[in-house]
Amino acid sequence: MFQRIWNVFRQRRIENEIRQEMESHLAMIEEEAQAQGADPGEARRSARLRFGNDGVYRDRAREADLAMWLDDLLRDTRFAVRQFLRSPTFAAAAVLLLGLGIGANGAIFTVIRSVVLRPLPLEEPERLVSVVETSGRFQTPESWPDLVDLQQGNRVFEASGGFARATFVFRGSGDALNLKGSTATPGYFSTLRVQPVAGRLFEDAEAREGANPVALIREDFWRTALNADPEILRKPILLNGRATQVLGILPAEFRFPASETVIWTPLIPQGPQKNRGYHAFSMVGRLKPSVTAAQAQTDLRIIMQRLAREYPEQNGRRTAKVVSFQDWSLDKQLRDRLMVLQIAALALFLMACANVSSLLLARHSARRREFEIRLALGSSRSRMVRQHLTESLLLATAGCVAAAGVAAAGVRFLVWLYGDEMPRATEIAPDWKLVLSVMGIALAGALAMGLATVLHGRREALRLSGGGGSRVSADRAGVLTRKMLVVFQLTSAVVLVTSTVSVLDSFRQLLHVDVGFERSKLIATRVNLPAGARKNGAAIGRSFERIAASVRSIPGVRQAAAVNLLPVAEWGMNGNVNVEGMSAYPAGFFAEYRWVTNDYLQTLGIPLLRGRSFLPEELAGSQKAAIINQTMARTLWGDRDPIGAHINMFSPEWITVVGVARDIRQSGVTVPASPEVFMAAPTLPLDLPSWTILVRSEMPVASLLPGIRKAIAAEEREAAVDRIQTMDNVIADTVSAQRIVATLLASFAVLALLLAGVGLYGVLTFTATARLPELAIRAALGSTPRGLAGLVGQEGGALVACGLAIGFAAMLPLYPLVRRFIFEVGPLSVSVCGAVGTILVAIAVLAVAIPAFRAARIDPMRILRGE
Amino acid sequence: MPKHQNDRLQGTLDLLILKVLARSGPLHGYAIAQRIQHATDEYLRIEEGSLYPALHRMTTEKWLAAKWSTTETNRKARFYNLTAAGARQLEQEERRWNELIEAVGKALQFA
Predict the structure, then answer these.
(1) Which residue of B has its CA nearest to A48?
(2) What is the pLDDT confidence band of residue A470, given thresholds at 50, 70 and 90?
(3) Are strands A263-266 and B27-28 parallel, antiparallel or unpaired?
(4) Helices (DSSP H) in A643-726: which residue ranges?
(5) CA B54 to chain centre
(6) Domains in chain B: boundaries
């Protein structure tokens, strides 16, 4: 480095030396001329002429020394900037292409790195694992007794804990607020090794039945919702209608089990939650040092085998699986989707590079004259190589700057899009190492592109010196390279667009899938009751029965009902079902449970296939009855009639099956119906205070809203009402992640089409220009405009055919990969391929038509004279 | 490997410069041009535009050593002297030149 700087000064000296040497030479000539009596001025002038081009002389003299390196760099940069200013369209296009290509990749990779790759912000996260139970092909959380047995029986964990997600109604100064939170055992916090920023964690005594209610809150929640109340640890807050003591404040970055978790209360199982068949609790453990996850799984499976022997009814087919806590807390689908987007972005980047290369080559050809002249005037080759490299480096640098902007905006956009679905969205931040490596790669790429152009230029120069350099001889190697680049772009576009269209198509089907009930003109609103104020589940159920009745009486409402878990959007409350007198009982069978008010099936429009709806005494809870769904009836009873059969679930009390309802997709639009039991609201055995009110009405949502709020408030003053949504929106929200992927892929695909079109247009325009003299001669010899356009069109047609053929051929092996990574994408359909082919051909026709049309209109005389 | 093997004209200029310096010791650019002109009876005129680049190039190739000094007329000038590498180069170039002459002569005789 010092050498370089020193050389800049040395350069002055060398230039001085050269000037002095010339001066003394000229002086000597004058002296001699004087001695011979000639005109010294004339002699000096002729000598100066003989010194020739000052620039060439200095160029050659200088090259001898590396000293000029830095100076030349500045000079080259200035020259390059001037060049780009002279063709701003080219420069802007290249910078934009590189910026989009690099930026999109940077954005997606930043998200992947933050969300998927970076370890969790916990102490020694690699030792944290999650334990899930499996029953056949289903994965479930642990039941409370299983959790206790696993925690006590294992020899592999240093610490372990159980937890479950929960919602709370919090009443601060204003309206009641729904909070997302979690219940957790004291072991949960010691396993994750979180330290409160103020106060303390739970103690074992506080996690027992009958203990005074306590809670932990997250720091940012304390700051925003509680206005950083300094007295928070001394005075109780009103949570679920009960005065609850806040014991401690956890750091804002502690977002487990979910990013929206702001509050934790002790996990105290009640009633049926203590049953071995009631699976609702997740388990996290910290492996002892030197114990691997595989060893832990073996150890836990031994315990599960013992439990399966001891409790064959509940645990007969159950075993345990150990997964890393990081994987567990990350939605696997999200990771796959991000990967798909990353691959699409990479393809886009390669297309952008191909386009820029193509642009550079075209520009190089257009500047051939300039380089010819410079070579002829004695410019040295290395000087021209440097010029090329400087230009591509300058482009890459500008592209990187643009990319940084695109990436920053892209990350923000992705976070905004994925928002709640991304578990670690708050951790996403630009990563300087990443930025630097991306820039490094981009610059290396630029050097490669520059060198490619130069090497190409060398061949050309050789041909020039061979004497054949005329405008007619089209730059064959360059054209071939550019054609290959265009075919590559068309191929990528086919792959990207076909995949995207398949994804969009399946997404469209997903939106219109028959969920099994009438989804239009149906409104859903979640209502939370402060559970603590109610004594038990029965009281909650009766409250919702009253609320539903009150809503039903609003003018314009046709039907209304309440359910504890909104179908399609919410599920997962399930467990074993026993049938009286049934011996050949399918092992591992379990059913979804839902508690519903009067008119639930009618409101959703689910027909009863057999039996009847609940009678008033059943709805009141004085007599126990259940309605089951079709799948459950078929699975357990086959062709026999289940009406009148007795079943029980979490208590030994027998319940009579009174009806069979048609299946609906209760666990999500993509999941086929699973066995389900409906029970009357007042038989709710737990205090589950969060229900959804369903309203069927012809009236617009906005006009119904005040009435619904008033009706709810009339029955339950303390109820917290969430926003009111149409069922269509609820269902659309359940597939919002798919929608995001589909939208992003679609925008990538549009870009890909654009790139391919521009690439095709560029190369055809260029070859047509290079062929102008040939076309002119043809025109002069009588070729029709149609024939001329055909010539150009043929060239384009061959390229498009090539690109489409390779692209569709590539789809055959690639498509299974797409299907593996993206939600229910159907098999590659002919109609999709046809549609993609049509779109591409339409764009290609446009890209080919312009240069072809131009070729048809050429004026042969003007061109031939110009030759 | 000498750089300008195929470039006869340039090679010839190099050869002439080397030969002149081998004969007469350190000389400045002007004197080198003068010597060549006189030696060839004014047949070869050395263009300054070629001479100085050649001198610089040969200095970087380390065939010549250059240093500033004063002329008889008390003028500052850069004097060039032959190095050992330069002497070897001269030997090679001379041999190659003679081979070329011989070859061309034969061709003219028998072709």
Answers:
(1) B48
(2) very low
(3) unpaired
(4) 701-715
(5) 8
(6) 8-110
Q: Residue A102: inside a domain, yes or no?
A: no
A454 and A540 inside one domain: no
CA-based nearest distance A59→chain B, Å = 9
Residue A595: closest CA among A682, A687, A690, A689:
A682
User: B interface mutation test: which of A10, A18, A21 has the most B CBs within 10 A?
Assistant: A21
DSSP A660: E
- Whether A147 is in a domain gets the answer yes
Q: Look at A50 and B29 and tell me if their CB atoms are within 8 Å.
A: no
A429 phi, psi to nearest 5 deg? -150, 155
Which residue, of A64, A90, A117, is where some domain finishes?
A: A64
Q: Per-residue pLDDT tens for A406-429?
A: 888 888 887 877 666 666 666 777
Q: Do B56 and A64 touch (CB under 8 A)?
A: yes
Residues A60 and A158 in one domain: no
Which pTM was predicted? 0.64
Residue A317, SS3? coil
End-to-end CA separation in angstroms for chain B: 32
CB contact under 8 A, B57 and A21: no
Sorted by sequence, the CB contacts under 8 Å of residue A587 that are 6+ apart come out as: A316, A317
The answer on A804 and A683 residing in a single domain is no
Average pLDDT over residues A791-800: 85
Residues A298 and A373 in one domain: no
Q: A532-589 pLDDT, tens per residue?
A: 555 688 888 999 999 999 999 999 999 999 999 999 888 777 777 888 888 766 666 7
Which range is least confidently modeled, A401-405, A709-713, A760-764, A838-842?
A: A760-764
Q: Is the pLDDT of residue A604 over 90?
A: yes
B47, two tokens:
């263009």
Residues A194, A221, single domain; the answer is yes
Closest CA to A259 of A132, A160, A115, A162: A115
* Phi-psi sector, A722: left (phi>0), alpha (psi -120 to 50), beta: beta
- Helix H or strand E segment including A850: helix A830-856
Give A22 to chain B, closest Cα distance, Å. 9
Q: Are A149 and A298 within one domain?
A: yes
Contact A52 B75 (CB under 8 A): no
A47 touches chain B (CB under 8 A): yes
Q: Which residues contact A310 (CB under 8 A, 6 or more apart)?
A: none
- Residue pairs spanning A and B at CB distance below 8 A: 60
Query: What is the distance between the alpha carbons of residues A595 and A691, in angstroms, rounded to a whole number?
Result: 9
Query: How many other C-beta atoms are found inside a 10 Å radius of the C-beta of residue A19?
Result: 11
> Shortest CB distance from A52 goes to which of B28, B47, B56?
B47
The model's pLDDT over A25-61, given as tens digits with 9 standing for 90+, comes to 778 877 777 777 777 777 777 766 666 555 555 555 5
- Ranges assigned E (strand) in A136-275: 138-140, 142-143, 157-171, 176-184, 198-199, 214-218, 237-239, 242-250, 263-266
Q: How many domains does chain A have?
A: 4
Chain B nearest C-alpha distance from A63 (Å): 9
Task: Go through A56-78 and write b for each residue having 16 or more CB atoms within 10 A of its CB, e for each that does not.
Answer: ebbbbbbbbeebbeeebeeebee
d(CA A702, CA A683): 34
Residue A86 lies inside a defined structural domain of this protein: no
Residue A489 falls inside a structural domain: yes
Query: Is the domain covering B8-110 a CATH 1.10.10.10 domain?
Result: yes
User: Confidence band (pLDDT; 50, 70, 90) for A658?
Assistant: very high
A54 shares contact with chain B (CB less than 8 Å): no
* Co-location of A229 and A178 in the same domain: yes
Regarding whether A764 and A698 lie in a shared domain, the answer is: no
- Report the sign of the C-alpha dihedral through residues A457, A460, A465, A471, in that order: negative
Confidence check: pLDDT of A640 > 60: yes
Containing structural domain, residue A754: 333-511+737-866
